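Repro:
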Amino acid sequence: MWDYMESQNLADFPRPVHHRIPNFKGSHLACQSIKGLDVFARAWGVKVDPDKPLEGVRLLALQSKKTLLVPTPRLRSGLFNKITPPPGATKEVLRRCATSQGVRSYSVPIGLDSKVCVDLVVVGSVAVSEKGWRIGKGEGYADLEYAMMVSMGAVSQQTPVVTVVHDCQVVDIPEALLGDHDVTVDYILTPTRVIATGCERPRPVGIMWSKISHEMMEKIPILRSLRDRERRAGKDVTLQERPQHLRGSGGQQAAPLSTGRPQSAPQPETDSVGAAQGSLQGQPAPLAATVFIGNLPRDARVGDLKRVLRGVGMMPPRLTWQGPQGRAFLHLQDPATAQQAVCQLQGLSLGPNTLTVALARGHTDQ
C-alpha cells in the first residue's frame, strides 16, 4: 500500500509515507464528510489520533467546541492530551491547534484518574475493508490505546469508531489477519465515499496482557500503572513470555542488558548532542543498542536530523552527531527498539539525500 501510494503520487506530506499512517491528497475533503455523521454531531468528547491525514477532523472538532483528546505519540508520557485553544482563538489559531505542533503547544495531559468519556474514536489506517477490518502501521498502538480506554471506562462496545483513508486504501482484508485485540471501524471516510461498515465483530474488552511484551512495558509508563491497578483488582496480568533467545540456560531469564554506555560505541569526532528528550536529573538513560545513520548532506545540521526524527515520532535518549563525516548515531535502550528504529527510518530523506540506516555493528549483541 505504501509503495502504491508513492508510485501513483497519491501520497502527501510528510513523505515518503512508508512506516506511517499515510497522508494523502484529498485528506481534508475526506475529513469534511464527518460533519454529516450523526455520531459526530452527538459527540461531546472526541478522541482523534495525531496522524497528519486526520488533521481536518481535529480542526472540525475544535470548531464545533467539542472536547478533543489526542493520544500521546507512542504513549511515552501518558495516554491523552486534551487540546485547549486559548480564549477567543481565531480560525487560524484553531487551525494551528489541530496540527502536530499545535497538539504539543496547546494541550494538557489527562491522567488515569481523570473521568474521561469518549463518545467517538477516530483512527488512522494503512488499509481498511468495507467490512470494517483495519490494518495500521503494524505496531499495535491504536489497538492498545483503545484497550486502555476500555480499561479506564472511557469507551464501550457501543462507542463508534471512524477512519479516514484514500479510496485506494479500501481493500479486501482476509479475516485470518485479524486478532481478537484488533479494533474494527464503523465508518470509513474517503474523498468520494462514506461507508457504513455494519461491522459486528466484537472489539477488545480491555488490555490483553498476554499480548504485551516486557519491552513494551518498559517503554510505556502508563501501561505499568494500569497493570498495577488491574493486578490489585485481582485480574490476570501475566505478560507475553519472553522469546527463547532472551532466556538463559535451564529456562532462567538472562541477565538484563547493560544499562551503561556501550563499550564499543563510536567516539564522536564532535561533541555528543542530546536528543529532544534528556534523561532525568542529568543521569544517562539506560542504553544498550546503537543505530547508524549515514549519507547525511554536507550542509546538514543536527537540528535538521532531529526534525526528521520528530516527524516519525522518534526521540532517542541520546544522539551522537558526526555531521562532517556525514553520519550520526542514535543510542537506544535495547536491540528491539533499535531494530524497530531501523525499520521506521528506512527510505527517509534529509534534503536531497536518502538516509542510510542500519544497526551499528557491535552494539546489539547480548
